[in-house]
Amino acid sequence: xxxxxxxxxxxxxxxxxxxxxxxxxxxxxxxxxxxxxxxxxxxxxxxxxxxxxxxxxxxxxxxxxxxxxxxxxxxxxxxxxxxxxxxxxxxxxxxxxxxxxxxxxxxxxxxxxxxxxxxxxxxxxxxxxxxxxxxxxxxxxxxxxxxxxxxxxxxxxxxxxxxxxxxxxxxxxxxxxxxxxxxxxxxxxxxxxxxxxxxxxxxxxxxxxxxxxxxxxxxxxxxxxxxxxxxxxxxxxxxxxxxxxxxxxxxxxxxxxxxxxxxxxxxxxxxxxxxxxxxxxxxxxxxxxxxxxxxxxxxxxxxxxxxxxxxxxxxxxxxxxxxxxxxxxxxxxxxxxxxxxxxxxxxxxxxxxxxxxxxxxxxxxxxxxxxxxxxxxxxxxxxxxxxxxxxxxxxxxxxxxxxxxxxxxxxxxxxxxxxxxxxxxxxxxxxxxxxxxxxxxxxxxxxxxxxxxxxxxxxxx
Amino acid sequence: xxxxxxxxxxxxxxxxxxxxxxxxxxxxxxxxxxxxxxxxxxxxxxxxxxxxxxxxxxxxxxxxxxxxxxxxxxxxxxxxxxxxxxxxxxxxxxxxxxxxxxxxxxxxxxxxxxxxxxxxxxxxxxxxxxxxxxxxxxxxxxxxxxxxxxxxxxxxxxxxxxxxxxxxxxxxxxxxxxxxxxxxxxxxxxxxxxxxxxxxxxxxxxxxxxxxxxxxxxxxxxxxxxxxxxxxxxxxxxxxxxxxxxxxxxxxxxxxxxxxxxxxxxxxxxxxxxxxxxxxxxxxxxxxxxxxxxxxxxxxxxxxxxxxxxxxxxxxxxxxxxxxxxxxxxxxxxxxxxxxxxxxxxxxxxxxxxxxxxxxxxxxxxxxxxxxxxxxxxxxxxxxxxxxxxxxxxxxxxxxxxxxxxxxxxxxxxxxxxxxxxxxxxxxxxxxxxxxxxxxxxxxxxxxxxxxxxxxxxxxxxxxx
Lengths: 461, 465
Prior knowledge:
The complex is a heterodimer of chains A (about 450) and B (about 475).
Chain A: E1 19-21, H1 45-53, E2 59-64, H2 67-71, E3 91-92, H3 97-102, H4 105-119, E4 123-128, H5 130-135, H6 139-150, E5 153-157, H7 168-181, H8 188-196, E6 202-208, H9 214-224, E7 228-234, H10 239-243, E8 250-253, H11 260-270, E9 274-276, H12 282-296, H13 299-327, E10 331-336, H14 340-343, H15 345-350, E11 354-360, H16 365-374, E12 380-383, H17 387-397, E13 401-404, H18 406-415, E14 419-421, H19 432-448
Parallel strand pairs in A: 2-3, 2-4, 4-5, 6-7, 6-8, 8-9, 10-11, 10-13, 11-12, 13-14
Antiparallel strand pairs in A: 1-12
Chain B: E1 2-3, E2 17-18, H1 25-33, E3 39-44, H2 47-61, E4 68-69, H3 74-79, H4 82-96, E5 100-105, H5 107-112, H6 116-127, E6 136-139, H7 148-163, E7 176-179, H8 185-197, E8 202-205, H9 230-235, E9 241-244, H10 251-260, E10 264-266, H11 272-287, H12 293-313, E11 317-322, H13 324-336, E12 340-346, H14 351-364, E13 369-372, H15 376-385, E14 390-393, H16 398-404, E15 408-410, H17 428-448
Parallel strand pairs in B: 3-4, 3-5, 5-6, 7-8, 7-9, 9-10, 11-12, 11-14, 12-13, 14-15
Antiparallel strand pairs in B: 1-13
Helix pairs in contact in B: 1-7, 4-6, 7-10, 11-13, 11-17, 12-17, 13-14
């Protein structure tokens, strides 16, 4: 990819390497610290760990730190539940000055004991924050001691915010917490017994957080082809289900940004193979279902899969015709935190729209490789853009739609560009075939509203 | 937590905070800085601090919010944050051309002991030419001490300490300083309207009325597009007096009083009749002005609204939660309406708050449960034990409202599940009139709709408790 020409964007010299236009086979510089002083879209390691584990519904998620870390992040993820809603409660040890001086271990211990009494949860995940790392509280030993006393599973998550500039480390730390303290921690007897009664078609869905109910849309598709979901990590899951995650024939990985590592480790420990799937868009959903059916190599299942795809896709295509007519040829900019930077590209193409810009704040080289494979020549790819850069790019590129999160929403609207939230705040399921109709409707709602005739445009000529 | 009325039936807890009802200091600091025209808030800490705060602020105000970060990470924590802070100041200076940079610390940088003032001095001396120098103001806001309320207070004080100057001719600008506290931009606007009505010149510290409620103009600004200008902050040393609309935000006013002899008045938040009266009285006394016909008319309309609504509201039990000044102001107001505070809760630990609501309650013959330093769990547990007909507070109480089947009027911060928080004033007579209707209509919808809004049904069926 050639470097982005000066005429496109005025920015700091050191930032130029982080943007490029797709043509050949290079990727933007990435996985580097943000420039201090930038208004970064990045979060912290604690945030990365929390988003992965938070959807476990029957657990307490206790933030060990000053109150702010908890009060800014409780109940902010639109992960839905079919039962328990303990995960929506915000818990903090509320460290004060004297705890910083004398250490917060005792307070943490007492808090765990107290919370266990009040809620009798299936598990308590304890997240460490920046200051806990500095004062050196021994999270592991406190959790161990508290677990012995409470008999409740108490899981340390060593997610000090400053440990990396890239919250992907937080994802990994969250996966490690599951691998070390949850998955396969039942007795060997139980494990053997369960393995013996295993059916042939059991999968785990990994990296699916059930935002707006996406998991349920995917689950129903699998049920129709005769595949049973053993557990979901972590959307709408219970601790007991994740404990038995070893009991699957296959891991299908939905968010490949947060959860490839978990699948990889489970293959090493339990011999469970994995495949990468994507349930956003008609083709991606179809291919993902086919891939699972092919993995099991069951003719009946493959036939059922083709029937399902054939039937659903036909209906789907006719249902989205109206939306497509209005959306055809519109241009989209995607700037997100996770795997959507590449997994959404084809969905937009299926609506007749072109992705002209994409990027992510936490991309690793392999992420940009996937983006490279997904986008057309001429697409702008940008890593870790701050808010000012982003605004400049939008003004220059004049997309008809921005897909991003809450922090970018009002900036886009002020510039006069329709916005679609594909993040935590989303309330409509976009996954699977039914989800694609919702997606088309949502995009159409944003783009085709007459309000855009009222808004003065900030575009640069 | 300081609890009064300990007899209440609560699942007792001593350690955990469950569903917090306050934020940490940097959050308040950012809110204060967003009212200074051209100011960039910079949080010296990890990236999550600025990002999560921006998330909260923009989903409440529904405006783009920019807060810079020094992006501390493992390596820089070991060696101290000097290099990051220097680099951050340089980046902001080059990229954003701000009028001022407000640097707030976090739990991380407080604990590693970064000396922000000396790093800033180093930056100014070694990097900036004399003619380029902009104020760069450090505020110590460790997240493990105080709350966003103190963070706000400290920031206003720091702005005044660093910027004010008594003019040479022992001048008197004839103006009044208003320290707003963490109120909504619509409230700042409402206060400005009142000041204009009585032709009172003012300096608002700080003025978020436009920056956090901006019109669509065809462009987006990265720094507060409007707000208090530096010259005005400087000039506030020459004013006739300072009124703090929030008692918990009055350190700046005390500073001006001590250093320059600018008299300081720390009032209750002017919510409802009595508190607004007090505010107008302070104003007119300080400046020797008369209240205006228009204000008297607005006052009469508020009383008219209260009278129209009285039979719906009388003896209705109300639980209120949020920032201390908001809750105290609201407690006074609902008492004026003939309502009865049942549980009064703030997340901040404050004896001043307890004294205030106690006094208000005594004056009105009420005896609410008062929680200072409480959380929404405490609030919920106490609500379970007493009659409550109406909840007043932020969006975080929605679950309590649902579970207990009590209607919630969303006021305070943050409000993310409804629109218009930035456009809705609660201060002054006019806003009070709308609030009366809002409370009353909520009560009618919940308790009187079967009677087509006619107020001839008993409050509660006898013996239904």
